[in-house]
């Protein structure tokens, strides 16, 4: 080994990108488990499939770009992207949906922009939006969250559905054969109800809901919240973005609810339905695409919260995190440019 | 709202942004007392580069005592260095520096005589009352004389800091020592708290701050205790000074960060703490101030922490400044090999030493020799994931990852817009980076690039300024010249209207021709002398003298050429006085004298015809006759003689233009003299001969030029001379050839010159001064070529070629000269 | 029909009004831009070396403003060329000079060989050479721009262009470039 001069500092924390990513994935595990519990084996199959495809795509792209494959692959960022795409896809969506989504995420969103650290958009969310727009039917056909007792689709059946190209309609029929209903997500249900002239409270009477929350979805969100708190505890993320997202969503929802309780969902329902928690803790906090300074991150998070609320309440899509995060990603460089922390010895005059 | 001082008295601390908590490893070295190591045999003291008026006070071979200053300077900023041991100045040369670059710097190398003879200026400690009686100037002077510098690392001269521009209200004594591993200040505070407080008293006496805060990190309880105790026994006014324990966080020991922690104020970017009325001094500096003031002892040793797992006996040691690092490593049983890293300073801000021969400096507080388990070789750099941890850790509130993007893309001006300048290079960002990016290295490169850019900008501005002013000057000069030319023309017109117009014109033409001849002749022998002077292996003094003589001779010749037309000299008569000249100096003096005499003679513009120039010739012959004394010196003398003769001839040839009966022979006698005096040394004979030949050739040329204006000129004697030269050479066959060739060259030139001369009419012929100048240069080059090639017989061919080339050039020049315009004369 | 006429008139009036407004604004808030020559000159290194083929930096800046190529300034190097390209809105071009000529150099007179001819002094565009006729000359290093112009006129070839040696003050922190000395253990200090 040749003696190489190194610049100071000569010591470093043992924290590595790869461990950070691994820990983040571990923290997402409770949420994935709960998702699996409610949506059946399909959820976990999608996650594993996505991770595998993500790793393979990453390796292929790296070798195409003539970059060292192993060092970059071992930073686990591709696996995390795969996981996030996997959980965002409906449990029984056909396999090619995940594959297209993941390949798009890794190849287009990440590597065409220069690889890890250079992408503007969050790969998982961009992929999700692409899928949602391209395959709306597959992407919105969520099976009804069932309790453990009703966990009806066996592993084999799930595999069959996912890999043998059963059409969504058939899935529905298949599902119908079991429990007689397919189900919209809670937010979707509310949106549909509101458009048919029902009030929120009437909407909440629907079977999708239970005690004012969406069945299953509330537990999934609780599980991700728990994972997020673990990440905070492990210092994998800082609280600023997640806190700002939740806070601003809560504030917006509260204002809306206070102004017009009949047409606006309550803040708690906002926080515990859809992708709120996983997005707030696992997706919005993606450091590559977020703002970097403390103030910038608060602003970034608040922007996401406001956008989510606006799109959920006034937009055409039931859930809005993917769009909100992508829009906020766009704003991140601006935020970073204009929200610079005051450097030591500089007056705050600006 | 409490005032700042009340807050300080209460011990209020402010939060500082960022910071990290690296593992400390301080117990490795702070368990034992400060010890001493065996002295090295050799010490290396870098000579300070600051201060324009800094000069070395010693020379190689001097014996120095311990503590004797090695440099002196009269500027206030000068910081002297001192001999750390008594001994011999073995060398003053460049040695690898104790710097991250390892670039060589000028150092005094002192061989230790192990006698420890102290400098007489040092004395036993004074009493406190004595010190109190000292004036501020005296105190400052002592601090300055002792070469006290900031011992925290930057080594800024303390006496400058102690004479601040503004009033100091708050003095902070920095005992924070936040870097991992380093414990030198810790041990110093534990063992020498009294001396440190004495130093603080001195600073108090000098500056009279309202408050003094001794800041110590709370991981050094013993040091805090000792300092508090010493402070309680001090003479400082009560309520004025206090010890403040500050929380352990890196980099709270940084000057700016410490000020922020203690006072909550920030030093404005680009300003110094003194602007806020705050002065920060290191505890080690306070100790050195005490030593300097009480004992008049210079800063020649300091406490150094030698630590790391590769050091067999880690601990703190008193080490003389200038000790080579490898000596220290040997003394402390260094366990690593030649590839183990050695870090100067702590692990956060220290640099790896490229060369272990480098000396210890005033600012070196730690030598860290980590093994691989402590500090693994740096991991490969991964892409930045913009996690923002660096921004959280940055104590300066910067955005390190933005700086990194721009620094990596070499967009340095953008990096500068993110306040790169305010980066203190503490290393927190690199420390926390999960991608192992050496951020600080990027910043340093960017900073140096920015510095270079600024420097270049300044340089460009300066260059532009100088270019513009030069243009202006040239313009003015041109105008002035035109003015002068006009006046001269008018005067000439007036003169022409006189009765003997024709006679004057003829005379002027002749003078010009002469001038041209002179310039040719002078340059050649001069460069001859120069060449032989440089090639000879005698002392440089001789060379210098020769050069001076030559320069003077040339000056004289050219002055003569610009002299008033009526100038005329008598024929120099050969008057050989065989005065035994013994020393070289005499010869040189003779040469100088001769040159001057000649100058005087030729300057005599309106001298009468009977002007005697013999003295010159006496000198010349002196020089000639004195050659046998030393062979080595003979050369020079001969060459000088040749030069002198050439000039004499010139002078002689000048005369014929005004005096028709002028005989040139006497000169030639001289030349033959020179030729005949050469046989002393074979090797040297050559040169003299060649010189003689060149000189003769020129003489001939000149003579032939004269003949064009003067019909009664005798040219034959010159030819006789040439044959003389030829006949005087029979010593060596090989050299004869050369001489002949030289003669041939000379003849060729002469012919050329002769042809040149007649081809001009009276007005144009001699007018352009510039052309002959060029000619002279070329000839001198040729002369050189002939000369330097001389030593090898095999190169005769080359000489011939050179001669041919020279001839071609000469011809070309002659043409150019004849075509050159009139007004060039102005130059 | 009438409505159309009204609409046309209205639109025409509006257009007139805004046109007048724009014209007024253009006059009123006219930015006295730094002429491109000045800007180009500010970018040039002011060595006045003439390597671009123009007698000084100002004439070259003027030529650039008139469409001369931007890659003719070896002392400025690639950085200057890129800045000029940006200023002029043209594509960067490789420099005409080789990399070797881009190393910063200063003139050095071998003083024992100097014959004091003053030719270099006359050649120096920034008056960085000190000396007088028949006296030895020397270069004021701080003022020398490394333009090379003094080398040619010297009749005795005693001027060298020496690369500027890095010192501790201007070192560029390129750690990889440092030759590391491996010292054997038995070596004496």
Automatic annotation (TrEMBL), chain B:
Residues 478-501, 516-539, 558-739 are annotated as: Disordered. It is an enzyme of class 7 (translocase). Pfam families: Complex1_51K, Fer4_7, RnfC_N, SLBB. Residues 518-529 have a biased composition (Low complexity). Binds 2 [4Fe-4S] clusters per subunit. The keyword Hydrolase does not apply. Its EC number is 7.-.-.-. Keywords: 4Fe-4S, Cell inner membrane, Cell membrane, Electron transport, Iron, Iron-sulfur, Membrane, Metal-binding, Repeat, Translocase, Transport. It is found in: Cell inner membrane. It comes from the Bacteria. [4Fe-4S] cluster 2 binds at residues 394, 423, 426, 429. Its cofactor is [4Fe-4S] cluster. [4Fe-4S] cluster 1 binds at residues 384, 387, 390, 433. Residues 530-539, 613-629 have a biased composition (Polar residues). It is a peripheral membrane protein. Residues 375-404, 414-443 form the 4Fe-4S ferredoxin-type domain. Gene3D superfamilies: 3.30.70.20, NADH-ubiquinone oxidoreductase 51kDa subunit (3.40.50.11540). The complex is composed of six subunits: RnfA, RnfB, RnfC, RnfD, RnfE and RnfG. Belongs to the 4Fe4S bacterial-type ferredoxin family. RnfC subfamily. PANTHER family: ION-TRANSLOCATING OXIDOREDUCTASE COMPLEX SUBUNIT C. Part of a membrane-bound complex that couples electron transfer with translocation of ions across the membrane. This is Ion-translocating oxidoreductase complex subunit C. It comes from Shewanella algidipiscicola. The gene is rnfC.
Automatic annotation (TrEMBL), chain C:
Binds 3 [4Fe-4S] clusters. Its cofactor is [4Fe-4S] cluster. It is an enzyme of class 7 (translocase). [4Fe-4S] cluster 1 binds at residues 49, 52, 57, 73. [4Fe-4S] cluster 3 binds at residues 124, 144, 147, 150. Residues 1-26 are annotated as: Hydrophobic. It is found in: Cell inner membrane. InterPro entries: 4Fe-4S_dom, 4Fe4S_Fe-S-bd, 4Fe4S_Fe_S_CS, Elect_transpt_cplx_RnfB/RsxB, RnfB/RsxB_Proteobac, RnfB_subfamily. Its EC number is 7.-.-.-. Its main location: membrane. PROSITE patterns: 4FE4S, 4FE4S_FER_1, 4FE4S_FER_2. Residues 105-134, 137-164 form the 4Fe-4S ferredoxin-type domain. Residues 32-90 form the 4Fe-4S domain. [4Fe-4S] cluster 2 binds at residues 114, 117, 120, 154. Keywords: 4Fe-4S, Cell inner membrane, Cell membrane, Electron transport, Iron, Iron-sulfur, Membrane, Metal-binding, Repeat, Translocase, Transport. Signal peptide: none annotated. Part of a membrane-bound complex that couples electron transfer with translocation of ions across the membrane. Belongs to the 4Fe4S bacterial-type ferredoxin family. RnfB subfamily. The complex is composed of six subunits: RnfA, RnfB, RnfC, RnfD, RnfE and RnfG. HAMAP family: RsxB_RnfB (MF_00463). PANTHER family: ION-TRANSLOCATING OXIDOREDUCTASE COMPLEX SUBUNIT B (PTHR42859:SF3), OXIDOREDUCTASE (PTHR42859). This is Ion-translocating oxidoreductase complex subunit B. The lineage of its organism: Bacteria, Pseudomonadati, Pseudomonadota, Gammaproteobacteria, Alteromonadales.
């Amino acid at each position: 080994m040749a003696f190489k001069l190194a610049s100071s500092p000569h010591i470093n924390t043992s924290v590595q990108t790869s461990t950070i990513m691994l820990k983040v994935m571990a923290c997402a595990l409770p949420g994935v488990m709960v998702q699996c519990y409610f949506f059946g084996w399909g959820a976990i199959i999608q996650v594993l499939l996505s991770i595998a495809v993500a790793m393979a795509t990453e390796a292929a792209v790296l070798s195409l770009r003539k970059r060292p494959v192993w060092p970059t692959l071992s930073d686990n960022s591709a696996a995390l992207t795969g996981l996030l795409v996997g959980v965002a896809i409906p449990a029984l969506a056909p396999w090619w949906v995940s594959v297209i989504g993941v390949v798009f995420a890794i190849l287009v969103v990440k590597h065409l922009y220069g690889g890890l650290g250079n992408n503007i958009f969050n790969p998982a969310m961009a992929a999700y939006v692409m899928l949602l727009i391209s395959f709306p039917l597959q992407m919105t056909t969520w099976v009804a969250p069932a309790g453990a007792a009703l966990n009806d689709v066996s592993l084999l059946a799930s595999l069959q559905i996912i890999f043998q190209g059963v059409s969504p309609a058939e899935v529905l029929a298949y599902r119908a054969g079991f429990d007689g209903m397919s189900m919209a997500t809670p937010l979707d249900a509310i949106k549909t109800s509101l458009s048919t002239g029902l009030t929120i409270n009437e909407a909440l009477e629907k079977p999708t809901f239970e005690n004012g929350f969406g069945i299953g979805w509330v537990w999934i969100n609780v599980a991700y919240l728990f994972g997020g708190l673990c990440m905070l505890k492990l210092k994998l993320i800082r609280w600023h973005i997640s806190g700002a997202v939740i806070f601003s969503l809560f504030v917006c929802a509260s204002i809306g609810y206070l102004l017009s309780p009949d047409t606006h969902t309550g803040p708690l329902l906002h926080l515990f339905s859809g992708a709120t928690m996983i997005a707030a803790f696992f997706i919005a906090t993606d450091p590559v695409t977020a703002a970097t300074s403390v103030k910038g991150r608060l602003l970034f998070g608040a922007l996401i919260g406001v956008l989510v609320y606006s799109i959920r309440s006034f937009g055409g899509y039931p859930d809005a995190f993917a769009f909100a995060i992508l829009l906020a990603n766009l704003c991140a460089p601006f935020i970073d440019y204009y929200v610079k922390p005051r450097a030591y010895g500089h007056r705050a005059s600006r | 709202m409490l005032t700042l001082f009340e807050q300080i008295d209460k011990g209020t601390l402010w939060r500082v942004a960022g910071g990290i908590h690296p593992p400390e490893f301080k117990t490795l070295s702070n368990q034992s007392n400060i010890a001493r190591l065996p002295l090295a045999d050799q010490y290396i003291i870098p000579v300070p580069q600051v201060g324009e008026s800094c000069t070395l006070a010693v020379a190689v071979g001097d014996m120095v005592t311990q503590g004797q200053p090695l440099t002196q300077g009269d500027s206030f900023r000068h910081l002297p260095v001192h001999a750390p041991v008594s001994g011999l100045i073995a060398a003053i040369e460049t040695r690898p520096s104790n710097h991250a670059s390892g670039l060589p710097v000028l150092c005094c190398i002192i061989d230790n005589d192990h006698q420890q003879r102290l400098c007489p200026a040092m004395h036993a400690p004074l009493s406190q009352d004595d010190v109190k009686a000292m004036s501020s100037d005296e105190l400052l002077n002592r601090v300055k004389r002792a070469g006290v510098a900031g011992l925290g690392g930057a080594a800024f001269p303390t006496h400058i800091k102690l004479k601040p521009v503004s009033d100091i209200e708050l003095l902070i004594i920095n005992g924070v020592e936040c870097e991992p591993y380093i414990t030198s200040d810790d041990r110093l505070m534990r063992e020498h708290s009294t001396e440190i407080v004495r130093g603080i008293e001195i600073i108090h006496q000098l500056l009279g701050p309202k408050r003094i805060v001794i800041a110590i990190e709370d991981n050094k309880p013993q040091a805090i205790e000792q300092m508090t105790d010493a402070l309680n026994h001090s003479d400082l006014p009560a309520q004025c000074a206090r010890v403040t324990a500050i929380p352990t966080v890196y980099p709270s020991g940084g000057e700016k960060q410490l000020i922020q922690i203690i006072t909550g104020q920030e030093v404005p970017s680009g300003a110094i703490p003194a602007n806020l009325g705050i002065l920060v001094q290191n505890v080690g500096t306070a100790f050195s101030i005490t030593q300097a003031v009480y004992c008049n002892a210079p800063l020649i040793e300091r406490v150094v922490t030698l630590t790391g797992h590769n050091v067999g006996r880690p601990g703190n040691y008193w080490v003389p400044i200038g000790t080579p690092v490898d000596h220290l490593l040997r003394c402390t049983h260094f366990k690593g090999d030649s590839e183990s890293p050695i870090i100067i300073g702590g692990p956060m801000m220290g640099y790896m030493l490229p060369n272990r021969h480098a000396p210890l400096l005033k600012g070196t507080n730690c030598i860290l020799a980590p093994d691989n388990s402590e500090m693994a070789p740096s991991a490969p750099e991964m892409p930045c994931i913009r996690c923002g941890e660096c921004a959280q850790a940055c104590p300066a509130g910067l955005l390190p990852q933005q700086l990194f993007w721009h620094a990596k893309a070499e967009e340095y001006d953008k990096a500068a817009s993110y306040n790169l300048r305010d980066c203190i290079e503490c290393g927190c960002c690199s420390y926390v980076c999960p991608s192992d990016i050496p951020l600080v290295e990027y910043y340093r490169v960017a900073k140096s690039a920015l510095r270079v850019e600024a420097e270049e900008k300044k340089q460009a501005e300066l260059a532009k300024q100088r270019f513009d002013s030069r243009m202006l000057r040239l313009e003015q000069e041109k105008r002035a010249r035109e003015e002068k030319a006009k006046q001269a023309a008018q005067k000439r017109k007036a003169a022409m209207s006189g009765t003997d117009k024709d006679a004057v014109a003829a005379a002027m033409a002749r003078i010009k021709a002469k001038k041209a001849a002179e310039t040719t002749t002078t340059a050649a022998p001069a460069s001859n002398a120069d060449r032989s002077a440089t090639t000879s292996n005698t002392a440089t003094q001789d060379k210098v003298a020769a050069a001076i003589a030559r320069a003077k001779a040339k000056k004289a010749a050219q002055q003569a050429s610009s002299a008033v037309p009526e100038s005329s000299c008598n024929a120099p008569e050969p008057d050989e006085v065989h005065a035994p000249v013994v020393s070289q100096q005499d010869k040189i003096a003779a040469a100088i004298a001769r040159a001057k005499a000649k100058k005087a003679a030729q300057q005599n513009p309106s001298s009468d015809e009977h002007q005697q120039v013999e003295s010159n010739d006496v000198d010349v012959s002196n020089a000639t006759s004195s050659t046998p004394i030393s062979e080595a010196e003979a050369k020079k003398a001969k060459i000088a003689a040749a030069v002198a003769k050439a000039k004499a001839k010139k002078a002689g040839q000048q005369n014929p233009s005004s005096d028709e009966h002028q005989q040139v022979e006497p000169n030639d006698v001289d030349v033959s003299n020179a030729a005949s005096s050469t046989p002393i040394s074979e090797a040297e004979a050559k040169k003299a001969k060649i010189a003689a030949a060149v000189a003769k050739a020129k003489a001939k040329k000149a003579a032939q030029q004269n003949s064009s204006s003067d019909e009664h000129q005798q040219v034959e004697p010159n030819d006789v001379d040439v044959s003389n030269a030829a006949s005087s050479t029979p010593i060596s066959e090989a050299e004869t050839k050369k001489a002949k060739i030289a003669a041939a060259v000379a003849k060729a030139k002469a012919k050329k010159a002769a042809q040149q001369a007649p081809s001009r009419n009276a007005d144009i012929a001699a007018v352009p001064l510039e052309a002959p100048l060029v000619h002279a240069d070329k000839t001198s080059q040729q002369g050189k070529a002939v000369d330097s090639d001389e030593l090898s017989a095999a190169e005769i061919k080359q000489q011939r070629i050179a001669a041919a080339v020279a001839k071609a050039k000469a011809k070309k020049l002659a043409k150019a000269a004849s075509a050159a315009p009139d007004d060039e004369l102005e130059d | 029909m009438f409505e159309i006429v009204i609409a046309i008139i209205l639109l025409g009036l509006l257009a007139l009004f805004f046109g007048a407004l724009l014209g007024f604004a253009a006059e009123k808030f006219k930015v006295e831009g730094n002429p491109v020559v000045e800007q180009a000159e500010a970018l040039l290194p002011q060595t006045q070396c003439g390597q671009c083929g123009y007698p000084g930096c100002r004439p070259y800046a003027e030529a650039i403003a008139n469409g001369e190529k931007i890659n003719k300034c070896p002392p400025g190097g690639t950085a200057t060329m890129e800045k000029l390209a940006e200023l002029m809105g043209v594509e960067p071009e490789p420099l005409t000079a080789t990399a070797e000529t881009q190393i910063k150099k200063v003139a050095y007179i071998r003083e024992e060989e100097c014959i004091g001819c003053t030719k270099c002094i006359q050649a120096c565009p920034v008056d960085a050479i000190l000396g007088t006729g028949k006296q030895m000359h020397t270069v004021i290093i701080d003022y020398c721009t490394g333009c090379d112009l003094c080398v040619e006129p010297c009749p005795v070839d005693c001027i060298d262009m020496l690369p500027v040696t890095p010192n501790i003050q201007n070192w560029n922190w390129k750690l990889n470039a440092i030759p590391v000395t491996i010292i054997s253990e038995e070596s004496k200090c």
